[in-house]
Amino acid sequence: MARPTDAARNADPRSTRNLILDVAERGFAEHGFAAVSMRKIAADAGLKNQASLYHHFKNKRALYEAVLTRGVELIIARMAESRSRNASRDAVLDHVIDILVEHPHLPRLIQRAGMDDNRNLARSVGRLLAPLYERGLAVLADASPGWPAADLPHLGAGLYHIIFGYFANAPLLQAVIRDDPRAPQALARQRKFIKTAVSALVVAAPRSDKVRSLRRQPTELAGSRALSATRQRRLSCRNRFRRGARRREARTGCGGRCPRRCTGHRSW
């Protein structure tokens, strides 16, 4: 990775901050929070020492949160901009995919953040990702009115893996398919697939309970008819027993209620 000159860094302090964030994003995504040192980040960013790094960020955790916040806020801003312009679903997806192409390490960073064993860090990650989750649910609620509100988190989880999973697992895909999943042709195919899959999931809402009950009605009706026939047979048997009891009473005089031990029953 090419390192900027001291003159360029001094001329634009903000570019130095962004450079540090880019280097840290790649390091945290590839190795995790615990495995990346501030010294390594400073060296990869071309800084003279760690003091220059601490000038921009208080500590490693502050740097990590800044990296994650930058990516999340960028996605939220693009989504809000698309909603304000009443952009189509494909346009919104294009904006999100463009961000993931520009920041290829961001999806893997988010994925790794969920697997980190640091409990304190996990709470920070949850707090930082909550706005993205809430914004995503709001977009889904508007775009898929046929889905029940209780199912929207599951729909969002599925769409997240379809959109972000491809970029988060790009190294694994490259090892399996032996082709660069970030190549322009591969990205174009994946972009088309994402739009098709998202459209299918959003439109194909689950059938309501009312529809399912109507579709089960013939079966239930057949069952009720079968039950009615069973009851009819039982009633018929009961009536025959009662008629037989009356005949036994007439012949034996015991009323037909004895356990068939009397002389009259044995003879009958």
Fold and architecture overview:
The protein is an all-alpha fold and 268 residues long. The protein has two domains: 6-206, Tetracycline Repressor, domain 2, CATH 1.10.357.10; 213-267. The chain has 14 helices and no strands. The radius of gyration is 35 Å and the shape is elongated. Mean pLDDT is 77; it is low at 4-11, 210-216 and 264-268.
Please provide a brief summary of the model:
By secondary structure, this protein is mainly α. It has helices spanning 6-11, 13-31, 38-44, 50-56, 60-84, 89-102, 106-115, 119-143, 152-168, 170-177, 184-203, 209-215, 217-252, 263-267.
SSE layout:
Blueprint: H1 6-11, H2 13-31, H3 38-44, H4 50-56, H5 60-84, H6 89-102, H7 106-115, H8 119-143, H9 152-168, H10 170-177, H11 184-203, H12 209-215, H13 217-252, H14 263-267
Helix pairs in contact: 2-5, 2-7, 5-6, 5-8, 6-11, 7-9, 8-9, 9-11
Record keyword descriptors for this entry.
about 270 residues; Tetracycline Repressor, domain 2; elongated
CATH topology of the largest domain: Tetracycline Repressor, domain 2
Average the pLDDT over all residues and give the rounded result. Answer: 77
- Cα-atom Rg, whole angstroms? 35 Å
Helix content: over 70%
Superfamily (CATH H level) name of the largest domain: Tetracycline Repressor, domain 2
Number of domains as seen in the coordinates: 2
Largest sheet: none
Number of strands: 0
Shape: elongated
Element-level helix/strand string: HHHHHHHHHHHHHH
CATH architecture of the largest domain: Orthogonal Bundle
Percent in strands: under 5%
End-to-end distance:
109 Å
Low-confidence stretches: 4-11, 210-216, 264-268
Count every helix, treating DSSP H or I runs of 4 or more residues as helices: 14
